[in-house]
Amino acid sequence: MRADTDAGPIPLKIVVAGGFGVGKTTLVRALSEIPPLLTEESMTSASVGVDDVAAVPDKATTTVAMDFGRITVDESIVLYLFGTPGQDRFWFMWDELARGAVGAVVLVDLRRVDECFAAIDYCESRRLPFVVAVNQFPETDGFGLETVRDALALASDVPVVRMDARRDESCLATLITLVEHALARSAVPH
Amino acid sequence: MTRPDGGRVVPVYAVTKGRTRSGGRDLPVESLVTATDLRGALELQSEYRAIMALAVRPVSLVEIGAALRVPVGVARVLVSDLADSGYLTVHAPPPTSANGAPAPALLNRLLEGLRAR
């Protein structure tokens, strides 16, 4: 009998972060083998800033939609992808998703670069490996990746890649870059 | 309990008795569970039976939450109940490095698997 007969499949996860409309859902759908599913985490009033509650006086709690997808990697590894809003008011979800994660893909729309700052800060502070993926939009083709690295003040080892979320192979290449980076980071003593 | 049209009659928080946190268990959302006692589960409430049906094969907390249309926190409570009663098994989390990240050997296998696609 093989030693791992009773071990069952091993779940791994990658977080996909970015602002609204930057391509999180497109990426998850491009790679997932299950139909795109949404799940919701309830957000308690304790998780919301006072101003947010004041803005919606009738709601003490609200719900947040979260994309997720699944990739069966081999006979014993299942990879889950979680698309999550990159704003700091959703950190209560991030803490749960980042725990034990392989790393994060931070999607950037160069027309709204500031929307990825919070996600990058989060990954850096938690030492979560991440790659910055510049999703291609027609108006942003002229930007060089080193310009993006400078604009985001990224450490030299953080991969910056250009990606087209509508193309499966482009999304897969981004994940591979992230795992390579996470592996390289795991070899460095913390 | 659900109506024939699929709508919910009893709020799921009634099934969890108002609990949104599970006793003692802090399962990650990607935790996989598998049914072990399908026969005994026939007598359970519908939400529990629905989970048991999904867990015929390994299924994650987040997939259970989506299928039952409940937040993951609620799915976690229901799954913990079933695990505590011996109806299903929670698979052990993956081996990690000291910093809590997946172990390098596991990352290598993930990398090989993704490259082979």
Descriptive terms for the model:
heterodimer; A: 190 residues; alpha/beta; Rossmann fold; seven-stranded mixed beta sheet; 7 strands; 27% strand; globular; disordered N terminus; B: 117 residues; mainly alpha; three-stranded antiparallel beta sheet
What secondary-structure arrangement, pairings included, does this model have?
The complex is a heterodimer of chains A (190) and B (117).
Chain A lengths: L9 E9 L5 H8 L5 E7 L6 H6 L6 E11 L4 E9 L5 H8 L4 E6 L8 H10 L3 E6 L9 H8 L7 E4 L4 H19 L4
Parallel strand pairs in A: 1-4, 1-5, 5-6, 6-7
Antiparallel strand pairs in A: 2-3, 3-4
Chain B lengths: L11 H4 L16 E4 L10 H9 L4 E2 H8 L3 H13 L3 E3 L13 H12 L2
Antiparallel strand pairs in B: 1-2, 1-3
The strands making up the biggest β-sheet of chain A line up spatially as: 2-3-4-1-5-6-7
Shape of chain B: elongated
CATH architecture annotation of chain A: 3-Layer(aba) Sandwich
Indicate the proportion of strand residues of chain B.
5-15%
State the helix count of chain A. Answer: 6
Count of folded domains of chain A? 1
N to C succession of SSEs of chain A: EHEHEEHEHEHEH
Secondary-structure element sequence of chain B? HEHEHHEH
The percent range for helix content of chain B is 25-40%
Low-confidence stretches of chain B: none
